[in-house]
Structures are given as structure tokens and as C-alpha cells.
Amino acid sequence: MTTKLIKVKAKEIFTKTKLSGCDWVINQYVGCQHSCLYCYAKFISRWRPGNYGKWGSWVEAKMNAPELVKGRYVDGFVYMSSIADPYQPIEKKLKLSREILENLNKKTKLAIQTKSDLVLRDKDLFKKFKNIEVGLTINSFKGKTKEIFEPFSPSNKRRIKALKTLKKNKIKTFTFVSPIIPEIIDLKKIIKETKKLTDSYWFEFINIRGAGKEFLDVLKRKYPKSYDVLRDKKKFQEFIKESKKIISSENIRIRDIVIH
Ligand code: SF4
Question: 121, 152, 180: which is closest to 32 by C-alpha?
Fold first, then answer.
């Protein structure tokens, strides 16, 4: 898919957030080439002037973001990023995430989350921070399911390999297991494959409202069993209960289990 790149200048780059465990977010990109079908950040399109096009086909890049972090220190946890992947393909060329890391006060308490192994490019910079953790989103989507839900992000295999490399480099890691969808996600397998590579876990059950109508329509057509569980309150609660049982039976550090 070709990407429409919109270069902009921002006034501020640290935004206050109520996201679990964080105080600030840095969003140097708005819009994400990974184009996940369930992406909760899609809502942002409505607030963009004109019609940029389908989610995933455009990226707004705050070109002065690296300048905006220079000489600043914000107290509390900073999360990169909440409405786009900081290591989506355009980052290879624009290097905004890298330059932000270069300029950011190294005492900043920072958490970075991505679906891409491009993150490994910046491990030299991660090592300069006193309080940093780098996380990979892992789910068990593969084959056709991966193509449908996450068409343009690197495979889970590559993400797990990235976790391994980060760990080898003594960088604190976390695994964000998301989105948890009944009948599709294999929690046991994910934990087994990441347990030795990650310091802690976040779990997140699919946010049906955030994922939107398009996601639900596809789910109904292609994964009727999942749809059935998600649309039936009782069945979904039962699924959550069973999943929590699996999660808590493992000897892992759980930061949060997000249920929308
Ligand atoms: S990687 Fe994250 S921000 Fe990007 S499209 Fe997927 S869910 Fe949305």
C-alpha cells in the first residue's frame, strides 16, 4: 500500500494521558502503516482536516518532534506511542523516533511499544537510559488470520526474536499480549514462547467498540465462533474468566489485565 505522508509541525510533544501505568505519551506519528483491522486509534481520522483516506494509507509526521523534547524533562512515565507504531516502516526513512531518543533527557522514565523489529536499530540508544523498558506486542495471529487482522506488521516470530535480542542486550522488556480474541488467540503458546524473554506482561482483551464495525463484520463472516462469544455477554465473561485462570497459573509478572 502506498503511503500518503503529511509533514507537520507540532506545538507540543508531551501529552498527558490516563493510560494504565503512564503519565505522558509521545506521538511523533499520527496514522499507522501497519493498518491493523482492529486498531483503536482509527477514531483519530475523524479529527483530521479533509480526507486523508483509509486508516493505514496515511501518516502524519511531526517533523519537529525531536526538537520539542530537547532540554525538557517530564516527571512520571512516558509512553511511546499511543496512536501509531513508533517503528512503523516510515521510521526507517524519517528516523523521528531515533532522533527523539537522541535528544530526550536520559533520566526520563520511558516505555516503548511496537510490533516491529525495526526497534532493534535503536538498542544503542536504549542503553543510555537509566529507566527504560521496551515492549513488543505479541499475539498468535499467523497465516490468513495475520493477513486479515494485521496485514503490514512483522510476523510474531520476528517480534519474539526481537524480544530475545533486546533481552540479550540487557534491556528491560515487556510483552503486550493483545488483542485477546476468543477462539483465535493462544495464551498458553504466547506465554511459553516469551516467558524467558520478557520481564513483565500486559494483557488486553479486544475492545469491540474501539475495533469498530469493519472489524466486527469481518469477524462475523470469517470467525463466527469468535463473534458469537464476543457478542454474548455471558460467554464473553466466561472466556475472560478462563483466560485469567491460564494467565494466573503461570509464574509471570503481570502488570495489568485490561478489559474494556
Ligand atoms: S500497530 Fe498499533 S497503532 Fe499501528 S495500526 Fe496496528 S494497532 Fe494501530
Answer: 152
- Residue 137 burial (C-beta neighbours within 10 Å; 0-12, 13-18, 19+): buried
CATH, range 4-177+185-204: 3.20.20.70
Query: Grid coordinates standing for 104?
Result: 530526550
Side chain identity at residue 161, one-letter code:
K
Q: Is the CB of 37 under 6 A from ligand 1?
A: no
CA pair distance 203, 89, nearest whole angstrom? 25
> Rounded mean pLDDT of the chain?
96
Q: Is the pTM of this model over 0.90?
A: yes
DSSP assignments along 207-231, one per residue: -HHHHHHHHHHHHHHH-HHHHHHHH
Residues 216, 206: Cα–Cα separation, whole Å: 11
pLDDT tens for 192-217 read 999 999 999 999 999 999 999 999 99
Residue 213 has a pLDDT of 94
Residue 42 Cα: closest atom of ligand 1: 8
Grid coordinates of 42? 482509527
Q: Nine-digit cell at 28?
A: 511523533
Q: Whose CA is nearest to atom 7 of ligand 1?
A: 39
Task: Give just the sign of the alpha carbon dihedral 251, 169, 193, 151.
Answer: positive
Domain boundaries, the chain: 4-177+185-204
Atom of ligand 1 nearest to the CA of 153: 1
Contact assessment for residue 227 and residue 213, using Cβ atoms and an 8 Å cutoff: no
Q: Whose CA is nearest to atom 3 of ligand 1?
A: 84
CA nearest to 56, candidates 84, 93, 21, 31: 31
